[in-house]
Amino acid sequence: MLFGRTHKNEIHLPVKPVDKWVYTTCGYCSTGCSLEVGVNAAGKAVTARGVEDAAVNRGKLCLKGIYEYEVFESQNRGTVPLIRKNHKNAFEEKSWDEALDQTAAEISRIQAVYGRDSFAIVSTGQIYTEEFYTLGKLVRGVIRTNNYDGNTTLCMASAVSGYKRSFGSDGPPGCYDDFEHTNCLFAIGSNLPEQHPIIYYRLQEARTRRPFPMIVVDPRVTMLAQMADIHLPITPGTDLVLLNAMAHVILKEGLQDEDYIRLHTNGFEGFKKLVNEYSPEKAEGICGIAADMIRKVARIYAEANAAMTIWTMGINQSTHGSDGVVAINNLNLITGNIGKPGGTALSITGQCNAMGTREFSSCSGLPAYRTLENEADRAFAADFWGVDTRHFPDKRGLTETDIFPAIERGEIKGLWLIGTNPMTSMPNTPQIRKILDQLECLVVQDAYTDVETVQSATIYLPAALWGEKTGVFTNTERRVNLVRKVVAPPGKAKSDLWIFTHLAKRFDRAKEIKFAETAAEVFDEIREISKGRLCDYSGMTHEKIEAARGIQWPCNTDNEAGSARLYTDGHFQYPDGKAKLIALPFVDNNEVPCQEYPFWLNSGRVVEHWHTRTKTGKIGNLNKFSPTPFMEMNPRMAAKMGIAAMDYVRVISRRSSAIVLVQLTERVAEDAVFIPMHYYNCVNRLVKGLLDPYSRQPAYKQSAVRIECLMDQDEAAKTAASLRDY
Ligand SMILES: Nc1nc2c(c(=O)[nH]1)N[C@H]1C(S)=C(S)[C@@H](COP(=O)(O)OP(=O)(O)OC[C@H]3O[C@@H](n4cnc5c(=O)[nH]c(N)nc54)[C@H](O)[C@@H]3O)O[C@H]1N2
Ligand SMILES: Nc1nc2c(c(=O)[nH]1)N[C@H]1C(S)=C(S)[C@@H](COP(=O)(O)OP(=O)(O)OC[C@H]3O[C@@H](n4cnc5c(=O)[nH]c(N)nc54)[C@H](O)[C@@H]3O)O[C@H]1N2
Ligand code: SF4
Ligand SMILES: [Mo]
């Protein structure tokens, strides 16, 4: 006899006639999945599929990638340039000529009246590398403001800073294939299954084939923590203490790799002296992890033939973000786990092209990891572009998080935002609104008109989105991958590349500088300018990239197929070729819970939404999972406070307050709550966002709040809705 449901209806997949499949790379997270979009005979995108022979995703996609093609027909796309006198007036539709003339005129006027650096520019991690490169040339060569940054300061700045301090350069040394070789995975402040689902799939596939211990450090019981062998629910903001104590145990018990330390590092003595002060017992008192457990994980890590660490925002978004990254690098250097299969310190990147901006946007320096501080680098870039080297500043200007206070102080009068929405994503958003409204000119270049920042804009430039233009992204493992144009942008929207090159034409000083107009031509320039650098693209072309389904830099004539790992020979980017071991004392400077604000406020992401939801909030199959702001709260604490599931509560910090629905879950500790970052007028009204001293990245993960019950739930629902509607 047969058991089970033997009589099943056949599965019928809806027929979507596809005329051609267009090769792209997903435009959400930095996993970098290859996906093909199916286009019908009428030229409409109707479906998508993962690319089976792609090294990254092997045919798989997460739910965001599957539905990404629906953005082509999403609501509230910008289709025409808009201008108004100030944010209180109504917008008027304008031609591109009028909008670009006015943008150039405003930049010139503000610079003439208040000085070169009084006009600031903040871009993104979500446009193509060719666009970043062109923007960099426009800003450094033509506009010449030094107050130019990317939203990557909210995201990857601590990883960049930490890599530079340890290895002498930015650049993640490892790759996803390291999961196939490692004997221990240490994941700290990263929730891979929700935020990088396909990297997680690669990890799980490797663990299924060949089990190895996974240790997860996160104050919240995330999906990754649930899959771990050991979960360390650390006291928020104290990772540095745990990492120092692990190094303490390793050195005390002689588990370090002496040869590696001697041959490839500097600074061992000072480092040893410092970690000697961080006994597991002392660490336990600060980070809340039992001393014996610290000893245990340190031994597992150091005794593994190959051990790797991955991390994301739990480390980067902290007052010791940069130090946390250096501490991870320290741990890997003393155990000889850099540049070897399965032995690495791999920062899991955020946005689809956060790497591209680091490599080529010239935000914090000059193209291909050149720096403004280095005279030879300045001379090279000036000569390459045909710019007088004296126009380059000799150190980087303000970061995004310092640009806003400078606007408040009246030092910056004009701002151009490209592909970022600080009115929802920066800490303390009520203050951000006041600051933006203070500007004489705010230019917003975005694909959508309902981006909250547009409410304060004087000029709005409608941009084409992913898949409406051609170009490349670099993913977490340094893999450069191609997005081909699938459909035309709506209305008069133009690619960012088009906008940059056409804006450049408005400035007399651009006359001597050549701006390539197509992505393929710009890519040729990138190949040339990167030749011989760590991020060498010289062996790649768009066609080669598509055929290989992505190529990892460095790629040149010696390395035609690209490079899986950096520093395989133990030679680092410091002049003497050695990495630095750096002593890192822990400074406890966070906002911590107190009697008046007794809860830790943690914030982050859910799998179905992307950041400020300008894209995913409009895709029905994604938005339906979490259409409203909510807060995870521990059921025991909720019961003590008389709060039931799905109640509205008011959450109050020293900055402001927000109203959220309560979701009860054991994922959070009794003294902690978690609110996703995706909703306007919500968690970032509350977040303090203290800055890391090196990276200037905000500590989004640690603030103190209190919770108030609301008697009139109908009224609360109305207030919550009105807060969202601005
Ligand atoms: N679905 C989806 N995926 C995304 C994104 C998205 O918006 N949606 N955004 C992309 C971007 S830009 C980024 S940067 C990444 C972010 O990817 P992740 O960093 O993995 O995601 P987050 O949820 O921001 O934070 C990760 C974890 O840090 C933990 N954490 C909080 N405080 C601490 C602490 O003090 N110590 C430690 N060790 N951990 C702590 C949080 O509890 C949380 O589980 O995701 C990328 N992928
Ligand atoms: N509380 C809290 N806040 C956080 C975080 C957190 O963990 N907690 N995480 C921080 C992190 S890691 C990040 S990365 C930031 C993200 O913060 P933002 O960058 O502000 O968020 P996005 O919603 O991704 O904004 C990108 C914008 O670019 C537009 N866009 C998309 N594609 C294109 C294009 O091709 N061209 C142009 N011109 N525009 C385009 C989108 O419509 C959108 O408005 O948020 C930060 N804020
Ligand atoms: S894992 Fe990231 S890159 Fe891959 S499909 Fe999902 S959102 Fe896109
Ligand atoms: Mo990010």
Summarize the model shown.
It contains 26 helices and 26 strands. By secondary structure, the chain is an alpha/beta fold.
Report on this model:
The protein is an alpha/beta fold and about 725 residues long. The chain folds into four domains: about 20-75, Single Sheet (N-terminal domain of TfIIb), CATH 2.20.25; about 80-150 and about 375-480 and about 490-515, 3-Layer(aba) Sandwich (Rossmann fold), CATH 3.40.50.740; about 175-345, 3-Layer(aba) Sandwich (Dimethylsulfoxide Reductase, domain 2), CATH 3.40.228.10; about 600-725, Barwin-like endoglucanases (Beta Barrel). It has 26 helices and 26 strands. The strands form six sheets. The protein has a seven-stranded mixed beta sheet with strand order 5-4-16-15-14-6-7, with helices on both faces. A six-stranded mixed beta barrel has the order 21-25-22-24-23-26. Strands 10-9-8-12-13 form a five-stranded parallel beta sheet. Strand 23 and strand 24 form a beta hairpin. Helix 2 (about 95-115) packs across helix 20 (about 495-505) and helix 3 (about 130-145) packs parallel to helix 20. The longest helix has 19 residues, at about 95-115. The radius of gyration is 25 Å and the shape is globular. The structure holds ligand MGD (2 copies), iron/sulfur cluster and molybdenum atom. The site of molybdenum atom has 3 residues, from loops.
